[in-house]
Amino acid sequence: MGTPQEVEADSQDRRSDWLWNYGHGRRIEPGTMAKRKQNWGKTPWAVSFRSQTAALQEHVDFAVVGGGFTGLSAAAWLARLAPKKSVLLLEAASVGNGASGRTGGMVLAQSAAGDLRGLGNVLRGYRRILNELGVQADLDLPGVWEVARGEKSMEGKKVRPLKGSPIDWNDSGRVRAVGKVPGGTVDPGKVVSGLAQAAVKFGAQIVEGTEVLKIEYSDPLRLHVRRTVRGRTEEKVVNAEKVLLATNAGSLELAGKLYEAKKSAEPKLTFALATAPVTTKEIDALGMNSGQPFYTVDFPYLWGRKLRNGGMIFGSGLVPAFGKTLRDGAKPWSGLEKFDVRRGEAAERLRSLEERVRRLHPALKQVRITHRWGGPILITKNFVPMFRRHPKNGNVLVLGGFSGHGVALSVYLGHKAAQHFAGHYTLPTWHSNS
């Protein structure tokens, strides 16, 4: 951001702002229905999967709540690992409607908190999971540029420009590459669609437009759901032996005590825009011909990547700003839904991002913006993911809070959740590190 006003607005986002990238969920709010559909803009990709209308089963072995990366991965693997068991995935809107379909598609290694004990190699696992499920999603892992303006990262680590840095821009200072880390890009729409298709192929039932209103933590568990079929609203109870809550920011009410134990879990909306294709000469001038995405390691934060059609994606910004919460006592998911990318704080963030992008390099000065959107993100204290049993019933798992590393990590840990339910994986104790 070049102007003082932009720098001030961006600096409000601080530590969490640099964690945007990728990933997140759909709301569960006990006793209520969403009053309106959110307007978070449109992405340059689409989700092609839509579930078939079918009667809800009254009793299932496994119920997965949330149709994003996490839930879809878990449902596919549960159906594959336990083919004689019934698997039901419930999604309040449509699969990929939350963060998973609205991420920027930048793939990073490990977690936002680093290499957690027993986590394993996330990128290798992510590639293997997509391959084994037959998900064709344009995954490319050439590495990711770390870029900076000054001599220190946001953590105070000394950095220096690489000799012959391919990136040489202006963004509150001269921006150049200072390092390279594992990672790359993927098409989020194809990941969502491919995981959903795999889940159905292996025998899972996916039901969209079905909201979980509340859960009775009995034995078996009782999920109270509501959906509209052919214009008629119906409420039913689904009994389940085990439940995975995979709605990320939407899990805050049902998993409140778990997130309180970490002292904070902040739901935010973060932003991105896509450009029309630029020429090969302009891509070369931008230093993006290798296909490696980038993110800044100092402030003000910015990340970006090249699209397969020759366009670019850039992202930054949060509302509410880091350190601030949703106003008027709004509950997390419904509070985020009130933000509209066409007006207010959200629109201002996008305008600021667009102006900033146009000043990065002469090749971007007149570029046409084709898409503007926001996506939800859940940031936990110390950036450690939540992967624990619910305190009210050990047969309920809560998985979320990827703090910006959700593109690969959510799919990877969704697989681990399925393994746990199938008796092949012991839950980690990462919460003890917080």
Word description of this protein:
With 434 residues, the chain is of the alpha/beta class. The protein has helices spanning 4-11, 14-17, 69-81, 99-102, 122-133, 188-201, 256-261, 280-286, 332-337, 344-358, 406-421, and strands at residues 59-65, 87-90, 106-108, 144-148, 168-170, 174-181, 183-185, 205-207, 210-216, 221-229, 232-245, 265-275, 294-296, 303-306, 312-319, 369-380, 386-390, 393-400. Strand 10 and strand 11 form a beta hairpin. Helix 3 (69-81) runs parallel beside helix 6, helix 3 (69-81) packs parallel to helix 11 and helix 5 (122-133) packs across helix 11 (406-421). Residues 1-36 have low confidence and may be disordered.
Give descriptors for this structure.
globular, eight-stranded mixed β-sheet, 434 residues, FAD/NAD(P)-binding domain, 24% helix, 11 helices, alpha/beta, 18 strands
SSE blueprint:
Blueprint: H1 4-11, H2 14-17, E1 59-65, H3 69-81, E2 87-90, H4 99-102, E3 106-108, H5 122-133, E4 144-148, E5 168-170, E6 174-181, E7 183-185, H6 188-201, E8 205-207, E9 210-216, E10 221-229, E11 232-245, H7 256-261, E12 265-275, H8 280-286, E13 294-296, E14 303-306, E15 312-319, H9 332-337, H10 344-358, E16 369-380, E17 386-390, E18 393-400, H11 406-421
Parallel strand pairs: 1-2, 1-11, 2-8, 4-13, 11-18
Antiparallel strand pairs: 3-7, 4-6, 5-6, 9-10, 10-11, 12-15, 12-16, 13-14, 14-15, 17-18
Helix pairs in contact: 3-6, 3-11, 5-11
